[in-house]
Write a structure and sequence with these properties.
Number of domains: 1
Number of helices: 2
Strand content: under 5%
Low-confidence stretches: none
Largest sheet: none
Mean pLDDT: 95
Structural class: mainly alpha
Length: 59
């Protein structure tokens, strides 16, 4: 079974890596792409955290 808490943590770390990359770039288009990717990873993490909470409530 998937450990959604671990996956959420991993996606938060990936989001932070994308934000770090975006901060280092001068090309606004590429920078924006990394920022959007970071937002998407954060959204994934939020969904996984929600699933983990719901699974804990069921137990």
């Amino acid at each position: 079974m998937t450990d959604y808490t671990v996956e959420a943590r991993r996606h938060r770390e990936m989001a932070e890596e994308c934000r770090t990359m975006a901060a280092c770039l001068t090309d606004k288009g590429v920078c924006g792409a990394y920022q959007r990717l970071a937002q998407d990873y954060d959204t994934l993490a939020e969904n996984e955290e929600r699933i983990a909470r719901n699974l804990n409530l069921e137990n």
